């Protein structure tokens, strides 16, 4: 997969390299997901609920299933480097990943379909996470650009997501990047129902 951000000819520092995740990336993805998921959780969430969700939803087996799902796209961000060569498809890439995004192309559940106004297949942004030391460096925006590109290729003109009502930092990010709040939903984390805001981004026709 060719990186989205081509390097500069003069070897200057580059933005993140965003690639489609391959099976080689699964251990890195699971590690990064376990490290970053707690960042989106509200303070009242118990450590059992958090670790239960990580074990169920963010394990290597869970990422393996996602990568095998033709309606799922997983993108991974790694630091760009001036010397980096174009990675060959399927080969492991050097460098600790800084972030990842996971989307599902499918009809939204009925309660969400009512909020977004369509029962057609759309893009559900299920995960967008950047490791703590890399926040504010444009990686989230770069991953989102990749998600929008994938949505476009799949013929989806709408991206939706849920984020915890106490996760004001993510809310600011989504509002800054063009999403609008369209309602609320409840979301199960480790057996406990949490309250999310639902956001949607509609691409112009
Ligand atoms: C939310 C998250 C993915 C954003 O990624 P990021 O790489 O830090 O964001 P970027 O640097 O690409 O920022 C993009 C824009 O959003 C803005 N933004 C990001 N976080 C912000 C914040 N907390 N408050 C205000 N603006 C913010 C940036 O200023 C930037 O705007 P600009 O490009 O117009 O200057 C990242 O902070 C993260 O992983 N958070 C923890 C996990 C999480 O909550 N994920 C979302 C779960 S739904």
From TrEMBL:
Keywords: Acyltransferase, Transferase. The keyword Acyltransferase applies. The keyword Acyltransferase applies. It comes from the Bacteria. PROSITE patterns: GNAT. InterPro entries: Acyl_CoA_acyltransferase (IPR016181), Bact_Acetyltransf (IPR050832), GNAT_dom (IPR000182). Pfam families: Acetyltransf_1. Residues 16-204 form the N-acetyltransferase domain. Residues 1-24, 73-100 are annotated as: Disordered. This is GNAT family N-acetyltransferase. It comes from Kineosporia corallincola.
């Amino acid at each position: 997969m060719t990186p989205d951000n081509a390097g500069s000819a003069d070897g200057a520092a580059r933005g993140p390299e965003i690639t489609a995740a391959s099976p080689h990336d699964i251990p890195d993805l699971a590690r990064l997901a376990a490290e970053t998921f707690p960042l989106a959780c509200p303070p009242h969430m118990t450590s059992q609920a958090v670790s239960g969700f990580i074990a169920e939803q963010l394990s290597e087996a869970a990422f393996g299933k996602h990568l095998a799902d033709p309606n799922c796209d997983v993108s991974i961000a790694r630091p760009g480097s001036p010397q980096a060569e174009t990675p060959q498809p399927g080969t492991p890439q050097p460098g600790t990943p800084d972030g990842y995004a996971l989307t599902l192309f499918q009809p939204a559940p009925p309660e969400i379909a009512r909020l977004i106004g369509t029962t057609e297949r759309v893009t559900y942004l299920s995960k967008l996470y950047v490791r703590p030391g890399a926040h504010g460096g444009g990686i989230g925006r770069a991953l989102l650009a990749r998600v929008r590109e994938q949505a476009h290729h799949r013929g989806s003109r709408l991206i939706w997501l849920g984020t915890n009502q106490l996760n004001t930092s993510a809310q600011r990010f989504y509002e800054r990047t063009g999403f609008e709040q369209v309602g609320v939903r409840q979301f199960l984390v480790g057996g406990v129902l949490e309250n999310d805001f639902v956001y949607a981004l509609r691409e112009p026709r």
